[in-house]
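User: Okay, second chain of the day. Same drill as before: sequence in, structure tokens out.
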Amino acid sequence: MLIFLIPTSIVLISSNLIAVAICGPLDWAKVEVPWAQADRIPIDVNLPWLPFENETRCYGEIGCLNITREWYHLIHRPFNVFPLPRNVINTKFILYTENNPNVGQILNPEDKDSILDSNFKSKQQVKFIIHGFIDTPLSNWVSDMKNELLEYSKQNEVGMLVIVVDWAGGSLPLYTQATANTRLVGLELAYLIQKLIDEHGLQPEDVHLIGHSLGAHLSAYAGERVKNIGRITALDPAEPYFQGMPTNVRLDPSDALFIDVIHTDARSFFLLEIPGYGMSQQCGHLDFYPNNGKEQPGCALSQESSALIPLTLIKDGIEEASRVLLACNHVRAVKLFIDSINGNCSYVAHRCPSYQHFTAGKCFKCNSGNCALMGYHATLPYANTQNENSKQTENDILSDSYPIVPQPGKYFLMTGKDPYCQRHYRFIIELAKPRVAEQWVQGFLSAGLFSERGKNLRNLDLTPKGTQRFEHGKSYIIVVTNANELADRVNKVELNWSHEMNVLEPRTLCLFWCNDHLYVKSVSVDIMQMPSREKRDIERSNKLCPKQEYADIRSLGRSVFYDNSCKR
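Assistant: Same drill. Structure tokens below.
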């Protein structure tokens, strides 16, 4: 047998068969066609680059799949194949409860006794954890998420079951084959859920599918077949072969009553960025974009992640070390969700037209449905709670008996590298322009916040991107984060100024003939709050002033601003 490799195709010639393979964007797809011997069984009979209408394959009682022209796109999805056989993928469903948190029980939808003899209870919430490409249920994050969910169930007495979906037999390379396998695993998952509904009393509204990467779209395939699935949480849903495709190919808001999405690796090739693994496209009711959904703190190879690889290799093994190196941004969505389950810090995000608007401080007030909680405690958007017969008024929505709900859309927030969850603070720095001031000065600015009850935050960096130019007479809006919360009203602010001289910029040199002081008229501080009703929004914005008309801050100096000095 002889194989010739050509950039666009492979032609294999033997006395028995012809095999053709096409090089796709990510891998090779192989098809074998019978040649002479009638007893030879072909693996596949379709050429994947030629879309056929109404090409269908059935898989027993779980249903059928087809490949039609709408599954093809010249750029986004040029190749399609059918899934591997069921016995090859070998999908398993492993149940964990408070009574068996460490040793799972296998649920077989075709074996009723496997469910009756397990710890499954129909009146409890059911959380499905679904891994993605080149992943298995043995990954550390799967165990961590399962444990956090069961701990939450125990502490809050909510009654929760966790089912881990094991499709490791189908998540291996090639990627095009793995994407096809998700459709079959979606059938398997839908079949199990429908059995639990029809024969064991499970309510579809109590089902919560949590899928990472390909697992997010896999969840969508299941939700498409089971009516009224309560919630799908998509953790950085996979981009290749899904973004830009019709809704029946990918995750979309019709796949569950509530879909929340966390985007953390949505870098685009078309924007001349290093391509990410995750989607940038909105595909849920609430789409969260921490740090613009792209580069996550601590994940750049120039940052500390590369230095952590040897330690991770020793502690967690080569698999986790490879995640740190190659998929840090992609996996960050998983870690943010896990941290949100029982963490003391809430991931508050703002609905905003863009991340640039958010970092410019233009979207900061938590009222009128403009804020939402990212992660486990995300809530259903208001627009989706309404129906044709709804008579709820604005007063009902603002009442104590009606839940606080966000509006659908894009939500932005900043997170840190350690800890992930951060509090957001917005500063409005109003500069004075006395006659002795230079037109502009360049340097670093930091702040300390002090509250009425003696709490304080020090060393808040107001120039996180490095040295910044400040023009006297103008105002600057700066949004920064800190892991600590200053819950009380701010009654004092301390500004620290450091002028920077750059020999490459002669205009920044300030020795004897210029003034390197910064002149500040006032400082306003807003502290981002939890989502609240507009009529009950607590005022925590505060304008503070120096005791004089303006503060004269020399380089390496500081000045203090008070909340009662602006009333003079």
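Residues 1-47, 382-403, 533-539 have pLDDT under 50 and may be disordered.

User: Thanks, on to the next one.
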